[in-house]
Write a structure and sequence with these properties.
Radius of gyration: 13 Å
Shape: globular
Order of helices and strands: HEEEEHEEH
Oligomer: single chain
Largest sheet: 6 strands, mixed
Distance between the termini: 29 Å
Mean pLDDT: 91
Helix content: 25-40%
Strand content: 25-35%
């Protein structure tokens, strides 16, 4: 299915939960998505990677982006790394895909 290939950072598991691969850039000038970096979504955060603050900022940013409670997101891989995999439960896959596609598509015009 072509739409699944369009977002290489997103994986759907058998139970319906989602995995989102991230590459986090701490200490950025603003919190923002910065496109794809390989098969990961690049996320810039103003938070420094100290005492788990960046991990909390990742969860808060994604929860707000996808309109989910923070409890619906868990960092499964990469607690101490810039490369992270976040498990998302209770999200509408099509909604997440639409949001990411919209955010990752360069504006024309």
């Amino acid at each position: 299915m072509p739409s699944r290939d369009a977002i290489p950072c997103l994986q759907v598991l058998a139970d319906g939960s989602l995995l989102l691969r991230l590459r986090v850039q701490p200490r950025a000038s603003a919190n923002a998505l910065a496109g794809l970096q390989g098969d990961a979504l690049k996320l810039r955060l103003t938070t420094p990677p100290v005492d788990g603050k960046a991990n909390k900022a990742v969860i808060a940013f994604l929860a707000k982006l996808f309109h989910l409670p923070k409890s619906a997101l868990v960092i499964k891989i990469g607690q101490q790394s810039r490369s992270k995999t976040v498990a998302i439960t209770g999200a509408d896959e099509q909604l997440v895909r639409r949001l990411l596609t919209t955010l990752l598509t360069p504006e024309t015009g």
